[in-house]
TrEMBL record:
Signal peptide: 1-24
Similarity section: Belongs to the glycosyl hydrolase 9 (cellulase E) family.
PROSITE patterns hit by this protein: GH9_2, GH9_3
Enzyme class (EC, first level): hydrolase
Xref: InterPro entries: 6-hairpin_glycosidase_sf (IPR008928), 6hp_glycosidase-like_sf (IPR012341), Glyco_hydro_9 (IPR001701), Glyco_hydro_9_Asp/Glu_AS (IPR033126), Glyco_hydro_9_His_AS (IPR018221)
A GO biological process held by the record: cellulose catabolic process
Gene Ontology MF: a single term: cellulase activity
Entry superkingdom: Eukaryota
Organism: Mikania micrantha (bitter vine)
Protein name per the record: Endoglucanase
EC number: 3.2.1.4
Keywords for the protein's UniProt record, in alphabetical order: Carbohydrate metabolism, Cellulose degradation, Glycosidase, Hydrolase, Polysaccharide degradation, Signal
Glycoside hydrolase family domain ranges (all copies): 30-484
Catalytic activity: Endohydrolysis of (1->4)-beta-D-glucosidic linkages in cellulose, lichenin and cereal beta-D-glucans
Amino acid sequence: MVQSYLGATIFILLNLSFASSTSAFTSQQYSDALTKSILFFEGQRSGKLPANQRLKWRADSALHDGSSANVDLVGGYYDAGDNVKFGLPMAFTTTMLAWSIIEFGENMKSELGNAKEALRWSSDYLVKAATATPGTLYVQVGEPYSDHRCWERPEDMDTPRNVYKVSAQNPGSDVAAETAAALAAASIVFQDSDPSYSHKLLQTARNVFDLADKYRGSYSDSLGSVVCPFYCSYSGYNDELLWGAAWMHRASRDVSYLSYIQSNGHVMGSDDDDFSFSWDDKRAATKVVLAKGFFENKINDFQLYKQHSDNYICSLIPGSPNSQARYTPGGLFYKQGESNLQYVTTSSFLLLTYAKYLDSNGGHASCGSSMVTSETLVVQAKKQIDYILGDNPMKMSYMVGFGDKYPTRVHHRGSSVPSVHDHPGRISCDAGHQYFDSRSPNPNLLVGAIVGGPDGNDNYGDDRSNYSQSEPATYINAPFVGAVAFFSGH
């Protein structure tokens, strides 16, 4: 045991000395990246833009969303480079923005207000979606097939804005429980600054969680080709129910949610060691949230979640006995080819959050017979964040507008088509394809957007047609906000 611990300690010290001697960015540069990562969300806004909109090439869009069902569904975010409002990734984005602020808001300084505005833009929309019709949650606006056939800016959009919902008759426990998690997490953020809004968020979250739990089923089954293959719930809905309950308990301190977790955890994925965290799969992150409950309140039932969190964290640490993660030759965590940076930002966020929990409680992660300290987790997260920002074999930033070299042909309709301010005349569905096919840089800079990222050999082609590499998404940026806030404050 002494020998293992000594080996782990040496491993940690090597990591730390390497990090301190090769620090790629200053705290000011991390602060700049934080500013831009939040600004990106203004480029994704749907609805009536406010007077203080900073990305001026955008304008009002989709002002009649929901009218086909006589409800108000104006607002929210377009998820990526298209013009559909997909509820599952939007709710996940909201949860992660809220969690970023909860854990690292104190490091955001002057950007805290902007981060809260970005969060409120989506939490406002989710409240509308959850309260427009009793017993119903609206989970999508836009017909994805016609939208994806068109290449048009949101301000010109003329594809159908069909609305889709889940209910007792058409259950969607996954999207409803994620929405409950989002509203509960957001309620924590606004608890002090806007208590009445916070109360409204939490009450809405309770109702949505009840809908998710009482009428169980996957929204992929209820809505079929409307959400598949775009955002199918591949992991099922049990992970979202446990995740939702964890956030409901954290926001409300209601013991009924604690009982729910204790009674249902073992059948909802708590016994799985899953090594992924995304808009679809919440198992690893749920264990980190619940591990905090073990650390702070010494809830013995939650010790299991600490052990599983250790297993997840150790899977990411190269050289640890439990290491399972694949890395590119340049050192980037590589999960899969399509939009890989989403897994980099989520795992980096969990590394830093778990490091914070360990620090606060004098603990360490157990990797087999070795022990890994919080500093090692921070070092590993820093390498990933630095890679995204430009410390990589391509010597380019994967955040638009950060550094001297970054993606210029981003797979994004509004960014790639001339703005309505420069080209007031309508650009139709088909006419937009000339801009999609162009080799010219996008005319509108989607500042702060993090694209899908390089391939498994660290190569990136800056090709608008290669959406798996060049498309940004809100759920890539949202966890990055918290991660880069951490480094901007250190």
